[in-house]
Design a protein that fits this description.
Layout lengths: L6 H5 L6 E6 L6 H19 L6 H4 L2 E5 L1 H10 L4 H15 L17 H11 L13 E8 L4 E6 L23 H8 L9 E9 L6 E10 L9 H9 L14 E6 L3 E2 L13 H27 E2 L24 E6 L2 E2 L1 H8 L5 H7 L8 H15 L7
Parallel strand pairs: 1-2, 1-7, 2-3, 7-10, 8-11, 9-10
Antiparallel strand pairs: 3-4, 3-6, 5-6
Length: 389
């Protein structure tokens, strides 16, 4: 059997090439992401002749937002895709179950107890971001609302926010609980309560008692990083994050897996959808889609990519256009579009647009069987052995 990199080797900038896995947010549509990951895992098991290979053996840094953070946490702990899918399927059916007494305008639509229990069971209730149980680099994308700050937290020991700082209150992300950081990343406003995370502690000089500071955290998708690909690239290359990896398509590869893009016609307002509240909600969702597209555009502009898609009629797929004059990385993007024309052209599937709009909902566990089937078909069409040198 082949030997794989240790956590230290995964993080070591001199051990190349480096491989990053980025996982989008998207609620129950994460089941679609898992089908792509299963295809990649199977391909790599054949490649290396190891039926026990897991994605933390191959990827040096795995990161995710919201539902992608749930999957990323499990992968970084060395779980295989099948195990995560079993947990995920069971979890989605439990957490997206609206109690009859909840009124969404006053309290979150869903409870959080089932999610918390499942995360503790899967990751370990006492596992911290600094735990040696993590087998590769991990980035969890969340948003701290009481400071208005996106928080990309990593397990890199040289990150300036990783360890406590003498004389300062912060406890360091190394001491934060993994399940709680992932729970924070999934705390989508309206759907779930925000997560209060201890970020600092100190001894009160008057009472001698330990006091704590809490941050108010919500879903990482409440930022420009629902697709965290560009944030992961910044973490890999910017000195402030301490990874200090080397750019270049032979040295750095980023694989980004989505949960599906809505049809561009999703924002058309008719009937009840034309009411002020409904139109406002759909407008906010369209901002998230715009951010996702901007991230894809930037990555295609920076990279050599065999999976580059046509962004629009003006800039096309940016083939041969490199922001830095040459590609800084190799980039793969796997995703579906909940659009009838895309389904017909890319997967030879004839689907009614209304059916696809319903499938694009993020909080409908009844869609998971159909999403998984769609993900398997898309992965079979898109994931190729030649993509993974």
């Amino acid at each position: 059997m082949p030997s794989y990199r240790t956590l230290e080797e995964h993080l070591d900038p001199t051990v190349t090439p480096k491989r990053i896995l980025s996982l989008d947010g998207g609620g129950v549509r994460g089941i679609l992401t898992l089908q792509y990951l299963a295809a990649i895992e199977a391909l790599l098991r054949v490649r290396y002749g190891d039926p026990r290979l897991v994605l933390s053996d191959y990827f040096d840094l795995i990161g995710g937002t919201s539902t992608g953070a749930i999957i990323a946490g499990g992968l970084a702990l060395g779980l295989d895709v099948a195990t995560i899918e079993g947990m995920y399927t069971d979890l989605a059916a439990k957490i997206f179950k609206k109690p009859f007494f909840r009124i969404g305008a006053f309290v979150p639509k869903f409870g959080n107890h089932a999610l918390e229990a499942a995360l503790k069971e899967t990751y370990g209730a006492d596992t911290t971001l600094g735990s040696p149980r993590l087998e590769c680099g991990l980035l969890i994308m969340t948003k701290r609302m009481d400071t208005g700050s996106p928080w990309p937290v990593t397990n890199h020991p040289a990150d300036p926010y990783f360890a406590p700082v003498p004389g300062k209150r912060r406890i360091g992300s190394s001491n934060m609980l993994l399940w709680q950081l992932v729970r924070a990343s999934t705390a989508a406003p309206h759907y779930f309560k925000p997560e209060h995370v201890v970020v600092g502690s100190w001894l009160d000089p008057l009472t001698g008692q330990l006091q704590t500071d809490h941050g108010l955290f919500v879903d990482g998708g409440i930022s420009t990083a629902n697709n965290p690909s560009f944030q992961l690239l910044k973490a890999a290359l910017l000195k402030g994050f301490a990874f200090n990896w080397q750019p270049g398509p032979e040295k750095l590869m980023l694989v980004a897996v989505g949960t599906g893009l809505r049809s561009r016609m999703y924002g058309v307002a008719k009937g009840w959808r034309a009411t002020a509240g409904a139109f406002a909600a759909r407008s906010v969702l369209s901002i998230m889609d715009d951010c996702n597209t901007d991230v894809e555009t930037t990555l295609q502009w920076l990279s050599a990519s065999p999976t580059a898609r046509r962004i629009n009629g003006q800039i096309l797929d940016l083939a041969g256009e490199f922001l830095a004059g040459q590609p800084l990385l190799a980039y793969l993007r796997y995703n579906v579009h909940y659009d009838a024309a895309w389904m017909k052209n890319e997967l030879a599937e004839v689907r009614a647009q209304g059916e696809l709009d319903a499938l694009a909902q993020m909080d409908q566990p009844g869609n998971m069987k159909a999403l998984a089937a769609l993900g398997r078909k898309a992965a079979a069409a898109q994931v190729k052995a030649s993509h993974f040198p």
